[in-house]
Design goal:
29% of the residues lie in helices and 26% in strands. Strand 1 and strand 2 form a beta hairpin. The strands form four sheets. Strands 3, 4, 5, 8, 9, 16 and 17 form a seven-stranded mixed beta sheet that branches. Helix 4 crosses helix 5. The protein has 340 residues and is of the alpha/beta class. The longest helix is centred in the middle third of the chain and has 14 residues. It binds zinc ion.
Amino acid sequence: MKAVRIHQFGGTDVLQYEDAPDPSPRKDQVLVRVRACAMNHLDVWVRKGLPKIQLPHIPGSDIAGEIVEVGEYVTGLRSGQRVLLAPMVFCNHCAQCTAGNHNLCRDFTVLGNLVDGGDCELIAISAVNVIPIPDSLGFAEAASVPLVFLTAFHMLTGRAALRPGNVVLVLGANSGVGIAAIQIAKLFNATVIATAGSDQKIERARGLGADYVINHYQQKISDEVRRITNKEGVDIVIEHVGVATWEESIKSLKPGGTLVTCGATTGFDARIDLRVLFARQLALLGSYMGTMFELNEVLKLVFSGKLKPVVDRTFPLKNVRAAHEYMEKSEMFGKIVLLP
Ligand SMILES: [Zn+2]
């Protein structure tokens, strides 16, 4: 098959579109022809080098395609079905997995991180990961869903315990997590304050339901939040930007508020004044992906049209270098999808 592989870590020139061995599925696995694989910032981190990745490596976490072969031990799935793949790998038999806390499993990893991903034509995957999709959902749209909608759903409902009517600040409305978080928060009738970096992105964020949008290049986020909330601050901040916005995110919280973070795109070495943490009784929570139950819950909302994936643009898989360069410019609104 054709695949994008990296044989060393580095710039976009390490992405090689080349022939790779076809995967041979186990009897408990399903072979899927990849029709679309959406990019995440993780693809860039993987390319630049993360610990424990074995080379050569195929990146790509968010996969949609068609089943071409079903292993002897697999029931309930058949060849030809249109599916998306849960973007994570877990042991499925430890205490955490059997309790449904898959993202706390010691073996937990994201597809395309410590195991080969979907920037290729064929992937062999455990049946538990394979989820049929409705005909109304195109492959590029389907691939744009799993990682970011699961992440945002776990952050808001699993970690921050979002309640109806909460005020939620969503950083980076144009990112996949931002797009998902705005829509999920609105399903809870939250008041959503989003941030974006251009007039066009601000318009798009409003279109997704954001009640207020702050231009994070021209306005000071915490000042605007204070003004919008009558000096109260927000209940929840959805963080994934990191160092560049961390201080403003903390300042935007109301006393007793919760900041939940799933990423550090602009850098991870953030600081906090511990006096602010205890005196204002803030909660700072980490979040990583989510559980299979949460994925199925959020997919129900996507399949019924209550939540909508946003595709920014697609690239043929062989143009993967251009896709990475485009992602690193951060000009997109929505997902960048590679088509094998
Ligand atoms: Zn486990």
